[in-house]
Amino acid sequence: MSGLHGAGVDAVYSAAGFGAAVPRGRRPAIVVVDLSRGFTEDRFPTGADLSGVVAATARLVEAGRAARLTTVFTTIAYSPAEAAGDAVAWLRKAPGMRALAEGGEAASLDPRLPVRAADHVVVKKGASAFFGTGLAATLTAAGCDSVLVCGATTSGCVRATAVDAVQSGFDTLVVRECVGDRAAGPHDAALFDLHAKYADVVGLDEALAHVTGLAPAEATA
Q1: Longest dimension (CA), the chain
Q2: pLDDT tens-digit profile of 33-57?
Q3: Mind telling me the catalytic residues?
Q4: What are the distances in angstroms from CA 173 to CA 66, 83, 89, 221?
């Protein structure tokens, strides 16, 4: 991700000691953040056409199945009281999110994703998949030592999840082709910042090679 903002910025970050490589875990989990229809389909005001992101994520998830990795999907959904009321501070800043209603089409996971009954599905109210949920405990109980993050949006929930993954003790990889946003600028800036400070931003081919190189006995059930 170097060079995005010029050699001068790269030099500043290098002098500050940012950008070290993240260790590759032997028991990674795949966390798919908010690839619900309200984000992956441009017919919803909150969404964009993330067909490519969905397809790439599906490939990674299927590869993870062969290695028996833990897979977690998340979605944002609000109860009628939350959507109509004033208790969720985030909805005062982003009122368009009130359309993500519990049980509604916008909050449902994209049907192109290979979701199975054995996969964990986390319903969240905020940006991070870790905030206010049992995700950290779930990953710890499964013996996971690292996280591969996919999903939407790169500048919002993906970034928040990756930061909290690191703060929860998990080495973190963000898979470039498996994340997307509504606009290129926020997407690129978020990937630059994540790669500098919190995670390794890796290509799908590298992520697939890492996952497929794990023997099933070394992966989580």
Answers
A1: 50
A2: 999 999 999 999 999 999 999 999 9
A3: 157
A4: 19, 33, 29, 20
